[in-house]
Structure to design on (367 residues):
């Protein structure tokens, strides 16, 4: 088997959905470093690193299988403007692909590397031989993408209770995407929680956004907290308003690393607006740590570590927080679960996987 050196962290099939030519070989992009828009850019030369997932090809080959299956599912979604039936094979494929996309980019790898390093530095402060040189400590995972993808593979079941919508875009403003396109967010806890992470996969109020093309965006969300689409909220596909599109484009710009990419038909002022609004909210630090001192030496200190997350004051006209969710006061827990019983079922399932009592019967095949 030929060695796969050039490993894309954003799949080529996904990028082609934003192409403007019949052959789907080129698209447009915006590079933050140079503040320039470029058109007619070859897709194959973007969003990859040499041996990003390792030289043995194991992860790259597994992702290629997933991408082959997901490509066919996404093509059907775009052609029919319709999502698969829940819990169907296509449903599992699309959810798995979307969630894996959130954990397979350089930004995602940098996040867990920074979490590890900040934790080690905090612990090192207690070591007499290290405390004076903590700032010089540098710690990284040997293969951060592999660590992340294993976590996603073990944890994707936690999102299977989320509802989902396809936000169809009929406005003059097209969806844009980026080199870190899958976004976890939480409008509900954004104004209610002042510390810790609110974007854990089992968190109350979780939202997930992934543009699938200039006219379609996948949204997964906590159905106990949000109503999406007004009085027709039971429909799996809704029509997005222009403000929805503008806000989600700005969110992409805030979440991106170095690049936005989009259809060449995207208006220049729409890209500029997304950049101006989004980069003000771009996260520089990717992890947070807080130490809570113990009551005495026997108890010890508690180190609280969590990933940084976007909190941009997101407003989406098509998304409403349900009065039933907004009413009850939250507890003082660090984690607010949307369904504790479901979480326990998922944990039991994961335990069976770890002990070898369960093996997957799902296989990804190209359609």
């Amino acid at each position: 088997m030929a060695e796969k050196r050039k490993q894309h962290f954003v799949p080529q099939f996904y990028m082609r959905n934003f192409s403007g030519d019949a052959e789907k070989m080129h698209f447009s992009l915006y590079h933050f470093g140079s503040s320039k828009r470029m058109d007619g850019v070859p897709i194959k030369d973007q969003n990859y690193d040499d041996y990003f997932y390792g030289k043995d090809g194991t992860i790259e080959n597994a992702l290629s299988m997933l991408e082959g299956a997901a490509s066919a599912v996404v093509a059907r979604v775009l052609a029919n403007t319709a999502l698969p039936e829940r819990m169907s094979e296509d449903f599992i494929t699309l959810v798995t692909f979307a969630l894996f996309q959130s954990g397979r980019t350089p930004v995602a790898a940098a996040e867990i590397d920074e979490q590890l390093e900040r934790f080690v530095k905090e612990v090192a402060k207690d070591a007499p031989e290290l405390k004076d040189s903590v700032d010089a400590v540098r710690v990284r995972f040997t293969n951060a993408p592999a660590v992340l993808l294993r976590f996603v593979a073990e944890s994707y079941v936690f999102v299977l209770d989320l509802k989902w919508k396809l936000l169809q875009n009929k406005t003059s403003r097209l969806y844009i995407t980026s080199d870190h396109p899958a976004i976890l967010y939480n409008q509900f806890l954004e104004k209610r929680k002042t510390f810790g992470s609110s974007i854990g996969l089992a968190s109350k109020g979780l939202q997930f956004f992934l543009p699938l093309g200039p006219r379609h965006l996948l949204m997964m969300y906590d159905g106990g907290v949000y109503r999406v689409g007004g009085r027709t909220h039971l429909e799996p596909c809704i029509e997005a308003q222009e403000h929805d599109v503008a806000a989600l484009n700005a969110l992409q710009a805030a979440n991106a690393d170095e690049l936005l990419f989009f259809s060449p038909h995207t208006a220049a002022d729409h890209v500029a607006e997304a950049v101006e609004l989004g980069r003000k909210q771009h996260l520089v630090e990717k992890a947070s740590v807080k130490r809570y001192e113990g009551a005495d030496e026997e108890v010890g200190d508690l180190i609280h570590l969590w990933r940084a997350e976007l909190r941009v004051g997101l407003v989406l006209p098509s998304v409403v927080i349900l009065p039933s969710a907004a009413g009850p006061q939250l507890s003082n827990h660090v984690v607010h679960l949307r369904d504790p019983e479901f979480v326990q079922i998922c944990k039991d399932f994961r335990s069976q996987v770890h002990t070898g009592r369960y093996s997957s019967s799902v296989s990804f095949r190209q359609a």
In short: The chain has a mean pLDDT of 89. Residues 352 and 358 are 6 Å apart (CA to CA).
